Amino acid sequence: MDTLVVERSDPLTGSIGVSGAKNAALPIMAACLLTEEESVIEGAPRVTDVLTMAEILRTLGAEVSWPRPPSGLVIRPDDYSGWTAPYELVRLMRASVCVLGPLLAKHGRARVSLPGGCVIGPRPIDLHLKGLQALGAAIAIEHGDILAQAERLTGATIHLAGPSGSSVLATDNVMMAATLADGITVIESAACEPEVVDLANCLIAMGARISGHGTPRIQIEGVARLRGARWRVIPDRIETGTLMIAAAMTGGDVRIDGAVPEHLGALIDALRQARATVELLPGALRVAANGCLKGVEITTLPFPGFPTDLQAQMMALMAVSEGVSLVAEKIYPERFQHVPELRRMGASITRDGAHAIVKGVARLSGAPVKASDLRASAALLLAGLVADNHTVLEGLEHLDRGYERLEEKLSMLGARIHRERERS
User: Fold this and answer.
1) Which residues span the domain enclosing 141?
2) In this predicted model, what pLDDT tens digit does every residue of 109-164 receive, in sequence order?
3) Positive or negative CA dihedral for 285, 241, 116, 380?
4) Alpha-carbon span 290 to 405, nearest angstrom
């Protein structure tokens, strides 16, 4: 297994660009199954999750290529006939379930293994199945697979509220399926995340009739067919947020090009409360701090609330901020696997169910640590930037799932990081 060796860094400084959002790219890749025509996805990051989705599409019979020089990810579904997404690929990431809606809408049947991904607590797919059943699909679970069938999908009004709020992937799946259904579908309690909006806009470019995306009520009028499209995915707000937190906790001054402030309002507010400076620039954000941060309170919520995918990274910042910080995890109450590893580095964190109390310490101490999930890996990397001595981070398969060259980007800003490759 590769490891990252992270040395205590000077304040990060300079400018860096942000990659395309993998959480937007994945459902957009799945949406290409709704048409027979070629589509080109620009800005899709070269991360493991995107490569896994490409393999799933190939298994289904689509052609997927990444021409050089980079001009976008090319997907040619043509007359693909596959309708089974296999366990060995689907188990690698939860977003694989996004092929369920397109396969059902296009072929009238789909077999998709129950998805895997990061271990951050229960994430049932009941809302996906509820939504597709409302459109007329017959659903069964057989031998660990979801088996869905429908001679023809029909529009319906569907409520997708769950115990932790709206579901992004369920909204994606139902919206994609509804584009080719008869009549009008209304999704109530729809997710409002920027990635859902990006998918809807891409579908519109493909010929879908969608309105209300970005609000809790999305309306889709089914059409007979969709065409191919060229689409550029939005910048990755979670990578942007990770870089913003890194700049603040190292006392740096960093400009992040391509950042979309409207996607990060809750984080911007939290960083300003922590005494960091966040400046909104044309097509960019600038984050600066003087090394004297203070504790804050955050509660993770669906967009536009504080993103659960930035909770771990923010906790790393809290660990070296003056005073006491509070975290309430309302999306995935078990998403605290990073806490024991931060404690190994000297952080003072007490967990009480879905809440954590963080008492800031003057300095963290480098240690061998292992990431349990994607965002935990980023949090431990950031903690290593402000820890004495050096930190050795294992579990990079998680980091590589969702961040495109994160250690290289941080190194360009002055961080001292190097990857030690496993010897075969």
Assistant:
1) 22-232
2) 999 887 654 443 444 688 999 999 999 999 998 888 899 999 999 999 999 988 87
3) positive
4) 27
The pair of three-digit structure tokens given for residue 6, joined into one six-digit string: 């992270």
Cβ atoms 211, 218 nearer than 8 A? yes
Place of tokens 């059943």: 133
Q: Which helix (H) or strand (E) holds 134?
A: helix 126-134
DSSP state of 158: E
Domain shared by 196 and 304, yes or no: no
Q: Is 333 helix (H, G, I), strand (E, B) or coil?
A: coil
Total domains, the chain: 2
Catalytic positions: 118
Residue with tokens 């092929």: 99
Length of the chain: 424
Domain-terminating residue out of 232, 251, 272: 232
Global pTM value: 0.95
Domain CATH for 154 = 3.65.10.10
Q: Which two tokens stand for residue 24?
A: 């937007």
132 with 277, same domain: the answer is no
In the block, tokens 């980023």 appear at 378
